[in-house]
Amino acid sequence: MGHGGNVIEELTADHREVGEIFGRIQSTTDQGQKLRDLVDEVTIELVRHAVAEEQYLYPAVREHVEGGDGIADKEIRDHSRIEKLLKQLEKTKADSPEMSPLLQQLMEEVAEHVEDEENNLFPMLRQACSSQMLGDLGEKVRRAKAMAPTRPHPAAPDTPPANKLLAPGAGLVDRARDFVTGRGKS
């Protein structure tokens, strides 16, 4: 969940972790509990990552990167599509014929989003912000991920200040549900 480093290093490490989980999903032949556990694992990571980006990365992009409002709005739209897919996956049984196409769509959406961030947004942010600022953002992102929800909440606010106020409460409820059900423990 927390990798260390500045915001770009932290979020890039998250991208690699999600890619690794997608690799395990693609290589599994189990259409039962193992697949459900992997889908839950990638959901937890993607939701925490998205919440942290929406709380800290995108406001920094708006403030420091030329054309930042448009860039942040586009990234938040990407998150919205991904979160809706995650919600559908949460409701889909692992052995359902709908599971594979939903997972494929999710992997494609995430790959496009990651490529855009790493090739466009991160270089602009690196150029616009001091190393101290990037380091501080990395720490804020790690703290946000620790408190973030673990389940998709597509109707929740995705911009400050409402997202910063509501996400920790939703995160607490999600982690309590996860504890009771054992979700995310595999």
Which secondary structure elements does this structure contain, and how are they paired or packed?
Layout (H helix, E strand, L loop, with lengths): L6 H21 L5 H32 L3 H24 L7 H30 L2 H17 L14 H20 L5
Helix pairs in contact: 1-2, 1-4, 1-5, 2-3, 2-4, 2-5, 3-4
Q: Brief overview, please?
A:
The chain has helices at 7-27, 33-64, 68-91, 99-128, 131-147, 162-181. By secondary structure, it is an all-alpha fold.
Poorly predicted residue ranges: 161-165
Structural class: mainly alpha
Distance between the first and last residues' Cα: 15 Å
Q: What's the number of helices?
A: 6
Order of helices and strands: HHHHHH
Largest sheet: none
Task: Describe the 3D structure.
It contains six helices and no strands. The chain has helices at residues 7-27, 33-64, 68-91, 99-128, 131-147, 162-181. α2 packs antiparallel against α3 (68-91) and α3 (68-91) runs antiparallel to α4 (99-128). The protein has 186 residues and is mainly α. Mean pLDDT is 86; it is low at 161-165.
Structure characteristics:
186 residues, 6 helices, 77% helix, 0% strand, elongated
